[in-house]
Amino acid sequence: MVALVDTTLTLSDGRRLAYTEWGTAAGRPVLYFHGTPGSRIWCPDESAAIEADVRLIIPDRPGIGRSDPKDGRTLADWPADVVELGNALGLSTFAVVGVSAGGPYAAACAALIPARLSGVGIVSSRALRKWNWEEIPGLQEEWTADDRAEFDVTHQDVAAGARLAAANFAPYVANLEQHPETMHDDLGQADGDRWFFTDPARTALFDAHLRETWRQGMDAVAGELNVVYMPWGFRLADISIPVHVWHGSQDPWVTQADIDFQVGRIPRCTLHVWSDSGHLGFVKHLDEVLATLASLGRARGGALLR
Prior knowledge:
Shape: globular
Order of helices and strands: EEEHEHEHEHHHHHHEHEHH
Structural class: alpha/beta
CATH topology: Rossmann fold
Distance between the termini: 29 Å
Helix content: 25-40%
């Protein structure tokens, strides 16, 4: 699996933003926001992007992979990076899809740059409820002691909060480095996702994209880990454009309550449920996700500036 493009863009503030492109170079543009851990170097199903005639663009968020960190960043900062990337690629409009921890980043774009978007997808994401402390009073009571400590420290000193989050994340990273099969076992709790890990080559690519997350070290990725504790800069209830939410009913991590909250909070939300999948439903059904988003792009009109 080799990307059509694997490069970096220098943003207006001097930071590098790394991204890859997959699928068809002249296809309908869809920006894919990976999970955490996750990175630009893995396309869940390249053949699905080709079949849907989609130009799938996968950027590394700040501090991840080859993208430079941005100290103190918030979720609301991400759409500005997305707009710069879209402008650099000559895209007047484009769809976005956020998978797992990428979900809030897709929601941020939906809320803050709706005029640039031809479609929005949120897939297998619990983060929109789990960390949405501004829209769910008392949510912190559901968090672990480490989560609450990271939240409290972040609200006193953002940099210190990031360091604490990175220190708490480090043992998880060390375990994944030594025993990637722990992630496989977690995801394999869903009967419908076990097929994914039966192919060693496919599994190796997946594991590599996880490791790419911290290629610059834990200090670089720290901002990704405590960003949800900072003010989000938007509310799900204020999203004005249609959003499609996909969920695998076997997901061991995303609960029905997480999905009900998203569907109930986002005003113009369409829910799609995969009964045959868990958290990796987006791999098995990427063709459906991309075909849906590409069709929305066709409905809005031309997506490429010529």
